[in-house]
Amino acid sequence: MCESMDEVSQAVLAKNDGLAASLRAELAGRGVMVVNLLSSPGSGKTELLARVLARAVERRVPVAALTADLATENDALRLARSGAPVKQLLTDGLCHLEARRLRTHVEGWLPDPTALLFVENVGNLVCPAAYDLGETLRIVCMAVTEGEDKPLKYPTAFGSAHLVVLTKTDLAGPAAFDATAFDAHVQRVNPGVEVVRSCARDGEGVDTLLERVLAARDGGPVHRPPLAPHPHGHRHEPAGEDAEGSAGLLAGHRVP
To answer: Region entry Disordered: which residue ranges (predicted)?
Structure first.
C-alpha cells in the first residue's frame, strides 16, 4: 500500500525529531546550548544577532554562530565582524534547516569551549517552524514593518517560540504599527510568551535578549509554548482561559 503524503511528512519529521533530540543531548554534554533564530526575510535578525554576538564577546561569553542561506556568504561576513566564530551554511535551495544538516556542519567546527551556539535559520516562517534543530531556545523575530497581524498569519512559528523579538522599533511610527494589537495577537497564539522590543540601530533590546539567553543557559526557567515538542512525543496545548481561542487558531495550521 502506498503511503500518503501526510504519512511521509510525519515520518520525515519524526526522524528529524529523533536526530534533534540526540544532537541536543550531545551538545548539552559538551556544555553547549543552541538558540534557533527564525524570521521572515528582512526582519533585521542578522544585524540584531551581530549586536548580540559583539556584546557576548565583550562579556567574554564563549559564543559562536552558524548562519543559513540559500546562497552567498554575506551574512557570515557581517556576523564575523563581532569577533565570534561564525560559519556559513548554504542549503542548496532548501527553505529550512534540518537537524541532520546542522549536525554535519557543527561536527569538527564548533570551537571549544563554546557555551552558546546561535543558529540563524533561513528567512522563512513556514518550513523552519516544523523542524526541531536540537535547540533549547527558539526565538522568533518580527519587524514592525511586517504588520501587527503576523502572529495570526503564522501561528505555528509564533506558537512554538520560547521568546518573541520585535525588531526595527524605530520604524513603528512611520509604519503605523499597532503595538497593542500585536501584543494581543502574540498572546492569542502563545499565551505567556515574553516579547522583547529591539532596535539594532541604537542597541535597544540587545542586552535584554542576551540576558534572557544567558539565563536559560544557566538553568533558569524557560517559557513553554503551546507547540513546544515534548520528550514523550506529544505537544503541549495552552491551558486556562486562553486555551480555547489559542487552540482553535492553531488547529489546522500545524505543518505536517
So the answer is: 219-256
